[in-house]
Structures are given as C-alpha cells and as structure tokens.
Amino acid sequence: VQLQASGGGLVKSGGSLKLTCATSGFKFGHTAMSWIQRAPGKELEWVAAISWNGETTGYAPSVRGRFTISRDNSKKTVYLRMNSLKPEDTGLYYCSTSGRRGQGTLVTVSS
Q1: C-alpha Rg value of the chain to the nearest Å
Q2: Quick one: average pLDDT of 29-36?
Q3: Which one of 25, 59, 83, 90 counts the least CB within 10 Å of its CB?
Q4: pLDDT at 13
Q5: Beta-carbon-side half-sphere exposure of residue 100 (alpha carbons within 13 Å)
Q6: 59 burial level (CB within 10 Å; 0-12, 13-18, 19+)
C-alpha cells in the first residue's frame, strides 16, 4: 500500500491549499479514504473521510464548511481542498485507509 500526500506549504491565514494523495497497491475504487492531521505537539486527529464512491463525506467540526474532500477513482487519488485556513490548521496531513497512512505533507498557516 502506497499513500503519497503532497500539496502542502506555507500560507497566510485565510488562504487556501489543495492537498493530493496519490495511491497504489490496493483496490482504491472499493475503499473509503480519510485525511488525518498531526498538529505540533498533539495527537493524530481525523479531519475528513469519503466513501468508496464519493457519495458520502464526513468532516471534523473544526473544518466543516471550510474543507472539502473528494476523489477521482480513475486516478486512484484523493484530494483535500482547504479554504479559509487558520493557524490552528497547521500540521502534517496524511491520507489514510484501513489503519494505514503514508508520508505526510506539511501545512503551515501564518497569522
């Protein structure tokens, strides 16, 4: 199972980023996917999830209305659109499935 997140960077408060997770090694089109975050000095936290067909999504209360998870099964890729970013959104973001997570991408939001 390979999960490679990218798209992180440094952005000012109120800005936007779009994270991408390229996957391989499993039946992506049959599998729900999630994004999780590790903020500095904190435990991993669940951010968002999407069903195998993209019809159902869920979000942590802290990001609902600002973040959008989506997927392209033909590309075996899952995305996280992040709008209205806040300094507390800073952290490493990982895509995850079946208890596994790959290399994260760092998001830093300056105030």
Answers
A1: 13
A2: 97
A3: 25
A4: 98
A5: 14
A6: middle
